[in-house]
Amino acid sequence: MSGRFEAIVGQAPVKGHFDRLIDGWASGRGGLHHAYLFAGQDGLGKRAFAEELAALIVARGRHDDAYERALRGAHPDVGIVEREGDLIRYEQVTRLVSELSLKPFLASERVWIVDEADKLHPAAANKLLKSLEEPPAHVFFILVSSEEESLLPTIVSRCELVRFSPVARADVLAMLRARQGLSPGVAGALADVAGGSPGRAVELADDALGEDRRGALIDATLRAVGGERVAAEVAALVTTFERRATAAVEERAAAESAAVEASIQDERDRAWHVERLRDKARRDGSRRSRRVAMWCADVVASALRDVWVASIDRSAVLLNGDRRAAIVVAATGHPATYARALDEVARTRRDMLLNVDRELALLALFTRIEEVCAS
Length: 375
What we know:
The protein has 15 helices and 5 strands. The chain is α/β, with parallel strands linked by helices. Helix 2 (46-58) packs antiparallel against helix 3, helix 4 (90-99) packs parallel to helix 5 and helix 11 packs antiparallel against helix 15 (358-374). It is elongated.
């Protein structure tokens, strides 16, 4: 391997495929497809892989200044389209299409990443489809989706499909064991909860070494199962978690902007780079806030799943094995009750994907969990 895609855990077949493609394309011995669709569950590194591939394209396979600028979000020939609110809107795709005929600014190619492509508004999807059918020779598209089935079949057919697979538990566990401060028991539990997702495992590990949001959410879920009224407390907790995540993004963006302002002499060039970094920070903050809320819903689901399993068999393997004692104590009801509560989490998670007010959604979720478990 060439040292490319090293930050991505697992996905060896995908890494090897693109490593060879980039080598052949950069030396004139082969070609890249004009459009790729990266598909697979959340947390597998699809977005990060797309960003690195885009950086390699504008840098012609080299790890040079163009590559580094692209990874920082400061290369004019790499564009990213993300949903605004609940959808990627027609106006966003219209802006993209209007730029396709423009020549690249610095590189020989231009790359457009469409993240969460399954969130394209139908009109936006049809607008993009026309460009996917006959793009300019210098343009590449990389679509990223965790819900491939929600995409227009015609869009899927215009792309080369690249599937990202869940990472083996042993590999996720090895990654977690390499982190300082995690006990073997906690590392094993987090590897189970991660469900083959390195991204989720990293978040869980960071949390275990810091705030222990997972512990707070599991505790609240078990209290709700036991009949306590915790809905308002949980909604406030999740809002706090989201704000802290957004603040961390803003702090990092401020440091990056300060570094750019100190290193670029030309005023117009400096202003352009700073604005690009601010745009990236807004996108990252919104995405990070949404991911935190979804992560919280997933933790609640894992805790309820464990209560359901323990209500059937107290000796069964639990996802949150490091919390076994508390989970077994809480699992005193009928399994059907906990199955209904799990259905409520699944319904709320679907609502949250549609960008409903997340605080209200979680408040309503725990109110329903309390009602279901009390009935």
